[in-house]
Amino acid sequence: MSHPVAQAIRDRFNLREWLEEFFARLKKNWRPALIGAALSAGLGALLVATPFGRSLEHWSYDLPFRLRGVVVPMEAALVYLDEQSHLELNQPYDAPWNRSLHARLLDVLTAQHARGVVFDVVFTGAGPDPQADEQLAEAIKKNGKVILAADYRTAGYGGEATSQSQRKFDPPYQPFYKAANERCGSDFVYADGDEMVRRHLPCDPANDQLASEGWTAASMLGAAVTKDETNKYIPFNINYYGPNGTLPNVSFCKALVSMEPGAEIPTNFFTDKVVFVGARIMTKYSGQRKDEYPSPFSYMTPDTPFTGGVEIQATAFLNLLRNERLLRLSINAELGLILLCGALAGFGLALLRPMGSTIAALALAISMAAGNYLMFAHLHRWFSWETFVLAQLPVAWVFSVAFNSIQLYVEKQKVEQSLSLYLSPKLVKKFAKDPKLLKPGAEKQLLTILFSDIASFTNISEGMDSDDLARSMNDYFQIAVHNCIHATDGTVVKYIGDAIFAFWNAPEAQEDHSYRACEAALRFRDQPPQFMNGRELVTRIGLHTGVANVGNFGSMTRVDYTALGENINLASRMEGLNKYLGTRVLLTADTRQVAGPKIITRYLGLFRLKGFEKAVGVHELTGRLEQEADSRELRERFARALAALAAKDFAAAEAAFHRVLEISPKDGPSLFYLHEIEELRKETLPPDWKGEITLKEK
């Protein structure tokens, strides 16, 4: 047995019905959907070269780091020329440090078997102390795995130089350069417009590439440093591991004494690590620009949000060593993906209604973000997915909601217009929200059915001008429907010539449906006289209550909301019986029984109608309860006459009907029975005859 919640979901969401509706909307709305696809895809193409498009690219790069969190690689360490070291070692802020200190540091790192040393400190030209220069050159040579910084300066800050004259290398001091086996790397990092370093690029003064410190260090250790077919370094995006200070680091002053007893750091702190030496805040001495940049993790350390250039170089080195560099999709692949996703979103969302479009848009955004994160975390690939999520998808969604809202409004107007042909304005508003009347299918329903007809309409309308006839009939139907049927919340099914077919208790259930139908008939009767072609229009009405099949019936191209069954025919026979009895409103005993005491009727006897085997009890609707006294004498005299007829006492019946005519000389039922009595006297009636009259015509 299935769980009730699961069953409720299955009942509410039928996949087959959903697919049928989707393909129906595809057939109907494919042209507007193409417009949505063009708008969404076109926006993606236009944003590529705009500032907003570049901001979306930056956000696409930054956000996955927040989801991944911090990683602490142990293959590198940092030695900082920080504030503490300035003070304890008594080094100036406005000039280079004593190079003998760097020599001492190198000796410590050599003793601890560091895998390599990268100086993010520029040694340009001879220092003020020749002996310190000799010590440093000897320490570099002894270590054997030192990489020096070549300072690549531009006239601007945080971006590439705009001309060759603005670019300049400050090469290392020649003795140091030879001692390092001519290993050097650029200390320059390329920042985007928001000052964040996202790309790691080789320096390119006059098209002669110089690898960065990170690239050079990775190459020294034998890491796979990617180059293209022209032997040019392939740029990549930096895969940050965390906020500043994430990589193992120590102050310069503490590193110098790390081999001494009681040192704060272990004697093997630098073992098997590549050590990067540089400033925590400034790459050079004070007075020059600060080499610090925001990172995707700056939000984690709001008090110290910036990462130094040396740590960025170390991060780039680790990316290469650990094969964790981030690669962006090629321009053509990314543009194609953005165009494809935008086109599919614009096309698909346009086929969904507003609620479905909203859910689908959210699902697409989450799926795109999740897909990019999986690429980022496991494949180290990324693309500008925010262009889709924050630009193309919202445009596709807005177009979908706007288009479908307008379409729904137009459809609602059409539905209301269609329903207004059947229902009262009150019910139109109700069912327009869920127009089940327009859906195929039928169901059995107890109804009270009304048929109306204009007496002698053919003769009245004969010879009339077509426009005059149409105008008169429209006036007649307007009054009949608005003042009578819709006023009692009846459903007008159709107009048949001058006739009206209506019923109650569908599509909305009505406990007092029979009374409502009788009230509508009385309103017909009580309307001010209407004339056509100089003659008064007399409306005859038949009412019956019974079960019928109610729903939409028709062909593939057109359906009508209607009711079918023998009870519909019986209501029509009631209307036709008025012609024989000279009455205006007749109803069956079934309707009389359900209608209750609020109406007054006169029982007219049993009639066996053509097409029906059983005799039907027929009543004439004479008025409302408060009008009971007006017809009491007539009803009582007629009842006595009818009882005499049922007893086969034709003489007494004849006399009694004449007494009815004394108070109502034109009483149609009495005149009818007086004529029938003459015929009945000629017939041999069965013993169980109870006064029923057989009509051989409709």
Explain what this protein looks like in three dimensions:
- The protein has 698 residues and is of the alpha/beta class.
- Strands 14, 15, 16, 19, 20, 21, 22, 23 and 24 form a nine-stranded mixed sheet that branches. Strands 1, 2, 3, 4, 5, 8 and 9 form a seven-stranded mixed sheet that branches.
- Helix 6 (130-143) links the parallel strand 2 and strand 3.
- Helix 3 (51-68) crosses helix 13 (385-420), helix 8 packs parallel to helix 10 (309-321) and helix 11 (331-350) packs antiparallel against helix 12 (354-379).
- 39% of the residues are buried.
What attributes characterize this protein structure?
18% strand, seven-stranded mixed sheet, 698 residues, nine-stranded mixed sheet, 24 strands, alpha/beta
